[in-house]
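Subject: complex prediction, re-run

Hi both,

The earlier run crashed halfway through, so I resubmitted it with identical inputs.
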Amino acid sequence: MARVRKKERQELLREAVREKPFLTDFELAEKLEVSVQTIRLDRLELGIPELRARTRQMAETAQEKVKTIRQDDVVGELLDLELGTSGISLLRITEDMVFAKSHIAKGYYMFSQANSLALALIDAPMAVTGVANVKYKVPVHVGEKLIARAEIVRVRGNKYFVWVKTRSDNREVFRAKFILVSLEEE
Amino acid sequence: MARVRKKERQELLREAVREKPFLTDFELAEKLEVSVQTIRLDRLELGIPELRARTRQMAETAQEKVKTIRQDDVVGELLDLELGTSGISLLRITEDMVFAKSHIAKGYYMFSQANSLALALIDAPMAVTGVANVKYKVPVHVGEKLIARAEIVRVRGNKYFVWVKTRSDNREVFRAKFILVSLEEE
DNA sequence: TCGACTTTAGCACCTAGTATTATATGCACA
DNA sequence: TGTGCATATAATACTAGGTGCTAAAGTCGA
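This time it finished cleanly. Structure:
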């Protein structure tokens, strides 16, 4: 009996901490109706760090997260790249990229993936987007893995014409044409 | 002499905390070569909270920040909206929105601002982007305030034709045409 | 009813502070 | 030359939210 209750309690504890990471041992003790000492023992067994360590961890990781979120998440992961020719990138659609109501991915994530992949292809120190022409073919939902393939189709002076086709599960969901312009050092 | 050094030191302190928020009073005291008590007095005068309060604040706000960053920052601030007609939004270009080399804003931020503004105009429960046609006219740099004005120019069935013009300091930097499609409940 | 597990209690100690009071140092001006 | 004032340091008592350890009490199954 006691053994079952212990395991159950430890599960509850784990959940409580995950949901509300800012609870002290005392508050946890009240919530689970045991003594503070029991909470401490349980934390020890479960390897849950103390309140202050938890907040510190969150503060540290969250700090980095905010910095890197735009660089990595928004643009996807570069899978293959032939500079000046073609490239492939992968973007996983997560919960926070979709509309709350429809669960459909916001359009600018596909645009961002395609645009940054297109820019990565250009074999020049600097380049900016001049024109973009995009078409959304099929709505994309949470969990889908978007594979974008980009190809430079023409180069005229400092202008690069790049086509990007994005597929999810072998179905084309998005298509873009970019005209990118390479710049001299300022 | 002492008075000047105090002000200087307090400036250094403020900077040190901003750069490395996880330093204890003792570490700060060593860094600035004064006693721990002096650091405490300075913190009191400057209104800098203690280490644990700082980390707690960061942990709390950062937790929310990670969630809202894409919803708010990426798309800008809605200044005015006439549903079904027109709208205006503002996006401030910050350090992390630009290319490290050229200091020019990445194209998808302008796209995101325009796209989300266009979607906000649509007077329907759900809508997605069908086609986008965008043109980048002038490179945008850190600190610029982008004002996007969107207007629905035509409606045909469930298709909305929206034009967005983005200006920075009264100069048009970006222009987009969207065809948005409103959806029925699934 | 015994032994093992579980729970609670108590105490010393730790870190990173707050709040307050006292003392020392320096410099400026009469 | 001393006196006054700002600044800096020190000392002490107290706090929250713990760790680590030992001891005692409760519970339960065989």
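Residues 66-73 of chain A have pLDDT under 50 and may be disordered.

- K.
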